[in-house]
Amino acid sequence: MALQPKIIACGNSVATFAMAVRFLTGPAVMAVASIIVGLRGTLLHVAIVQAALPQGIVPFVFAKEYNVHPAILSTAVIFGMLIALPITLVYYILLGL
């Protein structure tokens, strides 16, 4: 990650799309799946907030090891960590936790 020439190695449009999918679609899919299996109340809210948390470094390590889009994963890890706190706080406030 530190050796890449640009901070956004995969390009702005791909990074924006990846962050939108990660922080909008992920919690939405978690909400639908949680409702289907019967989660309600605080457990449902916690599951949605957890879906909005950033990914760790492990996916990047696997992507680098197997050479499967490491540029996209490195950008996702960097920007995911930076924008996760405000987004998680917004979900926390909206869900009333």
TrEMBL record:
Can you tell which superkingdom this protein's organism belongs to? Answer: Eukaryota
Its primary localisation, in coarse terms, equals: membrane
**Topology in the lipid bilayer:** Multi-pass membrane protein
Q: Which Pfam families match?
A: Mem_trans
Q: Which GO terms describe its molecular function?
A: auxin efflux transmembrane transporter activity
Annotated compartments: Membrane
Sorted keywords for this record are: Auxin signaling pathway, Membrane, Transmembrane, Transmembrane helix, Transport
Q: Name one GO biological process term.
A: auxin polar transport
Cellular-component GO terms for this entry: endoplasmic reticulum; plasma membrane
Which InterPro entries does its entry note? Auxin_Efflux_Carrier, Mem_transp_PIN-like
The transmembrane segments are: 12-37, 43-63, 70-94
The similarity comment for this entry is: Belongs to the auxin efflux carrier (TC 2.A.69.1) family.
Name of the protein: PIN-like protein
**Species name for this entry?**
Rhododendron griersonianum
Q: What is the lineage of its organism?
A: Eukaryota, Viridiplantae, Streptophyta, Embryophyta, Tracheophyta
